[in-house]
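Progress report, Aim 2. The chain analyzed during this reporting quarter is listed below.
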Amino acid sequence: MKMNNAPEYKIFTGNSNKKLADEIASEIGKPLGRVVIDRFKDGEISVSIFETVRGKDVYLIQSTSEPVNENLMELLILIDAMKRASANKINAVIPYFGYARQDRKAKARDPITAKLVANLLTAAGADRVVTMDLHADQIQGFFDIPIDNLQGLPILIKYFKRKKIKDLVVVSPDHGSVKRARAMALPFEAPIAIIDKRRPKANAVEIMNVVGEIKGKNCILVDDMIDTAGTITAAANQLIKMGAKDVYACASHGVLSGPAIKSIKKCAIKEMVLLDTIQIPEKKLIDKITVLSVARLFSDAMTNILNNESVSKLFV
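Predicted structure tokens for the chain:
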């Protein structure tokens, strides 16, 4: 990637997704900076930077994925270290932004952890955040610094277009993903359907109804993240019961916690397509799961930021 009269810059990474950081640095054509992240005996995080960052723009690549608290603290300490080393601008590149699901007070005395993390990043010294597919768009308003919320949907759309699936319906697994389903259906000129579900208790899903015509159709379920996979697998099984042909699923973030892999293996999903915002361990990469890279998109966004060019034009 060519930097047009850009300021001097360096790229560093924490431990959460080194594979993606290596790919981003390779796309840009710049090696990752030398940093060692270690632990004291009691578990405290120790950061040592082995090159100068004074007066330079710094990019810190770190998803706040499992272990969430460890990776978040690594990022905050890295930011603090760069700030105290007189970096010019500190850009936190967070492909997966954890703690985003608590973005409002759903009931009395609920925390708003998305706002808390936004405050922590700003207080630590971040000048900008670059992330992808926040759980809710309004989280951008929690920041008092610039934030670029990249879109992973075009990568997923491009992949499914190559498959040339006929009789296609894009399905939202719940009411919260309807906007995302409409955006995915548009390039295919396909209709959408909506799963009407309820949660009788935590981590339990009950399908009430399917709004839309799915009988005899090939379905793509689309969501922002797959965590325990309860919603997406229950939806897929219900679609098959109601007469759908093949069911695919896709999401930006493969959290894949708890019983997720076991559920995906057993369910009716033919293929699950995920982005690599979270590094998925080899033991979880079953045959049903396809992982697509976001390295090029993040490298392009970082390049545009350095060159003071538009980031939104990447989605035109």
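The chain has a mean pLDDT of 93. The domain at 153-292 is CATH 3.40.50.2020 (Rossmann fold). These observations will guide the mutagenesis work planned for the next reporting period.
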